[in-house]
Design a protein that fits this description.
It is a single chain. The protein is mostly helical and about 500 residues long. The protein folds into three domains: about 1-45 and about 130-225 and about 245-325, Growth Hormone, Chain: A (Up-down Bundle); about 50-120, no CATH class; about 325-510, MFS general substrate transporter like domains (Growth Hormone, Chain: A, Up-down Bundle). It is built from 24 helices and six strands. The strands form three sheets. Strands 1-6 form a two-stranded antiparallel sheet. Helix 2 packs parallel to helix 11 and helix 7 (about 140-165) packs parallel to helix 9. The longest helix has 29 residues, at about 225-250. The two termini are about 25 Å apart. InterPro entries: MFS, MFS_dom, MFS_trans_sf, Sugar_transporter_CS. Its main location: membrane. It is found in: Membrane. This is Solute carrier family 22 member 5-like.
Length: about 500
C-alpha cells in the first residue's frame, strides 16, 4: 500500500486548503489556553476574617474583636475566629478599652458564626467568597481543581477511543460544545456541589478538544507543515489563549463575569463544522475510500491542482483483504512493541506540565503578573520544540530537554530565593518544551486507527497537582532515561497500520 503522503503529494504542502485547516484548527485551540488555568482566579482565596454584625460597639472594639495571630513571622487577623460577640458587647457597653482595661488573651473566642468578610482589593468575588470555602470548608478549595482535572482525565481517556471509532471531526466539535456550554452553565451554580459537577463535565471537553484538533491536523497536513502545526501551531494558540486569561481576569474580577467571557468565544468556533474536513487518513483506515477521495479532490480544487483519475487505487484491495477491525484502549497493550511504547510514553508524559504551570502561576504577589509570566515562558518553549522537531532526532530532543527540566527543579532547593524564581521558569520552559515534543512524538509513533486513543490515554497522566519540585524533578529525570527506549520517528512517514508500527519497533531493537 502506497504511503498516504506520497499519494497526496500532488496537493502540495501549503495551498489554500492546508492554510484553512491549519489556521482554523489552531483557532479552535485558543479557548483551551484560558480555560485550562481559569481556576487560578476562580478558586483564589481573598483575604478574609469573621464578619462582625452591625451592633453597638465602640470603635476600639470594632477594630479589636478579631484576634491577631502570627503567621510565618507576620501578624495578621485571624481568619477563622473572633472574640465572643456577647462578651465584647458587654465590655464595650461598660466603657472598657481592649488592650488597656482588658487582656485580650483571656477572652473566649468563637467561630465565624455570622459568616466572613472578604477583601475586594484583588477580586470582587471568587467561588471561595461565594460559597465560603474557608476554615472548616477550606478542603473544598484545592479539591475543586482535582474535580476539574478528573474531568479532563476522563475526557481524554474516552474521547481518544471515540475519535478512533467515530471520527476526528465529530469528537472535536462535540468536545468543543461540551466545554463551551457547561462553562456557561457554571455561572448559574447555586452551591459548591452544583459548581463542581458542572466543572467536572466542562473538564471532559478541555484537553479532549485539544487532542482531537491536534490529531486531525497532524493527519491532514504533511511534511514540514505538519511539524509546524504540531509544535508551534496548536501550542502557540494555546499559549496565546493562556496569556489572554490574566487580561480577562484583570478587567472582570467577578467569577461569574469571568466565566461568561471565557465561554462566549467557544460559540464562534461551532460554525467551523462546515469548513473543517474529516481526516482522509482515518476514513481510509475505516475503508471509506470514496469519502476520502472526495475530500482530497475538494482540496485539489481549492489548491488549483489536477488530481489523478484514481487517487487511492489500491486501498480498496487492502480493505477487502484485511476486513475493518475496531480498536480500543486494550489495543495499546496487545503486543510487546506497542505495550512497551505505551508504558514509556505514559511515564514520560507524566512529567508534570499542569502541576508546574499551576505552581508558577502563583509565584508573584500579583496573580495577574504571575499568570502572564508563566504563560509567556511557553512562547519560546514552543518555538524551541518546533526547531527540535524540524532538525533533531526525537529521542535526543526529549532526553536532553527533560534532563534540563529535572536538574533545574532539583537545584531550586539549593539556591537563594532570587535565583530560585529563575530556575522555576527554566524548569517550566523545559517541561513545556518536552510536553510539546511528546505530543508530536506520540502522534508519529502510533498508526491511524490508534493515534487518537494513544494520545488521549497518555495525556491522562499529565499530573495536575501541586507536587513538590523535588518530585517533579525526579519525574522529569526518570522520564528522560525512559525515552531512550522509544522508537525513532524523525524523518519517517506516519504509520497507517499496526504492521508499520511493529516494523518501526523492530528497527529500534535492531539498532
Amino acid at each position: 500500500m502506497k504511503d498516504y503522503d506520497d499519494t497526496t503529494a500532488f496537493l502540495g504542502q501549503w495551498g489554500p486548503f492546508q492554510q484553512i485547516v491549519f489556521f482554523l484548527l489552531c483557532a479552535s485551540i485558543f479557548p483551551n489556553g484560558f480555560g485550562a488555568f481559569s481556576l487560578v482566579y476562580l478558586t483564589d482565596i481573598p483575604s478574609h476574617h469573621c464578619l462582625v454584625p452591625e451592633v453597638n460597639l465602640t470603635k476600639d472594639w470594632q477594630e479589636g474583636i478579631i484576634p491577631v495571630k502570627v503567621v510565618n513571622g507576620k501578624e495578621e487577623l485571624s481568619r477563622c475566629s473572633r472574640y465572643r460577640l456577647d462578651v465584647v458587647r458587654n465590655l464595650s457597653a461598660q466603657g472598657y478599652i481592649p488592650g488597656r482595661d482588658v487582656n485580650l488573651t483571656d477572652l473566649e473566642q468563637e467561630d465565624c458564626v455570622d459568616g466572613w468578610s472578604y477583601s475586594t482589593d484583588i477580586y470582587q468575588s471568587t467561588i471561595v467568597s461565594e460559597f465560603d470555602l474557608v476554615c472548616s470548608e477550606q478542603w473544598k478549595q484545592p479539591f475543586t481543581s482535582t474535580v476539574y482535572f478528573l474531568g479532563v482525565l476522563v475526557g481524554s481517556f474516552l474521547s481518544g477511543q471515540l475519535s478512533d471509532r467515530f471520527g476526528r471531526k465529530p469528537v472535536l466539535f462535540a468536545t468543543m460544545a461540551v466545554q463551551t456550554f457547561f462553562t456557561f452553565v457554571e455561572i448559574f451554580s447555586t452551591s459548591w456541589t452544583v459548581f463542581s459537577i458542572l466543572l467536572f463535565i466542562s473538564g471532559l471537553g478541555q484537553i479532549s478538544n485539544y487532542v482531537s484538533a491536534f490529531v486531525l491536523g497532524t493527519e491532514i497536513l504533511t511534511g514540514n507543515v505538519r511539524v509546524l502545526f504540531s509544535s508551534m501551531g496548536v501550542c502557540l494558540a494555546f499559549a496565546f489563549g493562556y496569556m489572554m486569561l490574566p487580561l480577562f481576569a484583570y478587567f472582570l474580577r467577578d467569577w461569574r463575569s469571568l466565566l461568561l467571557a471565557l465561554s462566549v468565544p467557544g460559540l464562534l468556533y461551532l460554525p467551523l463544522w462546515w469548513f473543517v474536513p474529516e481526516s482522509p487518513r482515518w476514513l481510509l483506515s475505516q475503508g471509506r475510500v470514496e469519502e476520502a477521495e472526495t475530500i482530497v479532490r475538494d482540496a485539489a480544487k481549492r489548491n488549483q491542482v489536477q488530481a489523478p483519475e484514481v487517487i487511492f487505487d489500491n486501498y480498496n484491495v487492502q480493505t477487502e483483504t484485511h476486513p475493518k477491525e475496531h480498536y480500543n484502549i486494550f489495543s495499546l497493550i496487545w503486543t510487546r512493541n506497542i505495550r512497551n511504547t505505551t508504558v514509556i510514553l505514559c511515564m514520560v508524559l507524566s512529567a508534570g506540565y499542569f502541576g508546574l504551570s499551576l505552581n508558577t502561576s502563583r509565584l508573584h504577589a500579583n496573580p495577574y503578573i504571575s499568570c502572564f509570566i508563566s504563560a509567556a515562558v511557553e512562547v519560546p518553549a514552543y518555538i524551541s520544540s518546533w526547531l527540535a522537531l524540524r532538525y533533531l532526532p526525537r529521542r535526543l530532543s526529549v532526553i536532553c530537554i527533560l534532563l534540563l527540566g529535572g536538574v533545574s527543579l532539583y537545584l531550586i532547593q539549593l539556591v537563594p530565593q532570587n535565583l530560585s524564581v529563575a530556575l522555576e521558569m527554566l524548569g517550566k520552559f523545559a517541561i513545556t518544551t518536552g510536553t510539546a515534543l511528546l505530543f508530536a512524538y506520540t502522534a508519529e509513533l502510533y498508526p491511524t486507527m490508534l493515534r487518537n486513543t494513544a494520545t488521549g490515554t497518555c495525556t491522562t497522566l499529565l499530573l495536575p497537582f501541586y507536587l513538590p519540585y523535588i518530585i517533579l524533578g525526579t519525574l522529569a529525570v526518570v522520564s528522560s532515561f525512559a525515552s531512550f527506549f522509544l522508537p525513532e520517528s524523525f524523518g519517517r512517514p506516519l504509520p497507517q497500520t499496526i504492521q508499520q508500527m511493529h516494523q518501526r519497533g523492530r528497527q529500534k531493537v535492531e539498532t
